[in-house]
Every structure is written in structure tokens, then in C-alpha cells.
Amino acid sequence: MIDSKTLAWIGGSIVAISLFSFLRVVQLKIQGWNRESISPLPLEGLWSITSYICSLIGLTIMFTGILETLAFSQVKSLIASILLALTTGFPMWGVVKGLLIEVKADNVKEIIPGKF
After folding, report:
1. Is 110 a member of any domain?
2. Model confidence at 51: pLDDT above 80
3. pLDDT per position as a tens digit, 68-81
4. Contact status, residue 104 vs residue 41, Cβ threshold 8 Å
5. Model pLDDT, residue 116
6. Alpha-carbon separation of residue 95 from 24, 40, 81 (angstroms)
7. Which domain holds residue 79?
């Protein structure tokens, strides 16, 4: 059986690697838009979806290991981790997709702290 701390580290590593690859895909889409006016949408390409789903799986594994370390049972920590990954993952997909829509429309707004 894998130790819960090791499980958390494995999940964290999966998250880091898959999010770096997802960010690289988004960066390449934005660079293609800047250089050659290639639309950054659709975001639903093979690499972007695969890397994003892998990051959600990594979050689930990481949070399961963390919750097991905090003395939760395996089943309860797995259920809580899945819910946490899904409730944060789907809205963030919408945020990234909204950003790419703003990039395509050339309507990216600067975020200034303290000003709404």
C-alpha cells in the first residue's frame, strides 16, 4: 500500500506537469493569434483537454493523500477529493475559455487591484 504522504506527492507532481503542459498549449494559442491571427478557439483540442483532465486527476490523487494524512477514511477522502476537483475544475475551464474569447475579440481588460 502506498503511504498517504507519498500519494499526495505523486498527485502534486501530476498536477504540476499537466498544468505546465496545459499552460503551454494556451500560450501557443495566444502566440498563434498574435503572429498569424489564428483563432485561439476552440480550446477543446486533444492536448488541452488531456492535460486539463490529467490535472484534475492529479488534484484528486493529491487531495486524497492529504485527507488520508489528516485521518480521514480512504472512501471519504476520495469522494471529497473528487467533489473538490470537479467543483473547481469546471469553472476554471470556463474562465480560461472566456479569456481566449476576449483575446479573439481583442477586448482583454487590464486587472487593476482595488478597482472594480
Report:
1. no
2. yes
3. 999 889 899 999 99
4. yes
5. 61
6. 17, 14, 21
7. 4-104
In a domain, 115, yes or no: no
More confident of the two residues 71 and 110: 71
Q: Write down how long the chain is.
A: 116
Residue 104 near residue 33 (C-beta atoms within 8 A): yes
Model confidence at 115: pLDDT above 80: no
Beta carbons of 58 and 13 less than 8 angstroms apart = yes
Task: Look up cell 498536477; give the residue.
Answer: 15
Q: Given the C-alpha cell 481583442, which residue does it identify? A: 106
pTM of the model as a whole: 0.78
Q: How many CB atoms lie within 10 A of CB 62?
A: 22
| Domain assignment of residue 109, yes or no | no
Instruction: Identify whether 90 is part of a domain.
Output: yes
Number of Cβ within a 10 Å radius of residue 114:
4
By CB neighbour count within 10 A (0-12 exposed, 13-18 middle, 19+ buried), where does 109 fall? exposed
Fill in the amino acid letter for 71: A
Q: How many domains does the structure of the chain reveal? A: 1
